[in-house]
Specification:
Layout (H helix, E strand, L loop, with lengths): L4 H28 L2 E4 H7 L8 E7 L5 E3 L4 E7 L4 E7 L11 E8 L5 E8 L12
Length: 134
């Protein structure tokens, strides 16, 4: 089977478009992908993780939430029941954010050990329980 000149051009053009799309997908994923760690895993990374974008999951430590409504800043600790880390977040806090709740924070840890979060997400409760009013 002999391909005509138009068919060859079409195949080459299609292949070029396909390769361009694959390249864009791969570079987009690599730039937006972030490691997902527990607090203990983050702590074991040591200085090698300073300044790196990471995502950390943990439970908000009871009594650790400190809010500054004027600057929309909230400071708190998260734990994985083995180790904990201090987190600072500036922005709108999700409605479900509270002590004892599982959260995921995304950001960078500085050399002082403070995790500066740029994103704060709360996990939904595994089972919905309506509030009881008397």
């Amino acid at each position: 089977m002999v391909l005509k000149k138009k068919q060859i051009k079409f195949l080459v053009g299609s292949l070029a478009i396909l390769l361009a799309v694959i390249y864009l997908v791969i570079t987009g994923i690599s730039k937006t992908s972030v490691y997902y760690l527990t607090v203990s895993e983050l702590k074991t990374k040591g200085e090698s993780i300073y300044g790196e974008g990471v995502r950390v999951s943990g439970k908000v430590v009871e009594g650790s939430i400190q809010r500054d409504p004027a600057s929309f800043r909230v400071d708190f600790k998260i734990t994985d029941d083995y180790k904990d880390i201090e987190v600072s977040y500036v922005g709108i806090v999700p409605d479900l954010f509270k002590e004892g709740r599982e959260v995921v924070v995304e950001g960078k840890i500085d050399p002082t050990g403070l995790f500066k979060a740029t994103t704060l997400l709360t996990n939904c409760p595994s089972k919905y329980k309506p509030e009881v009013t008397d």
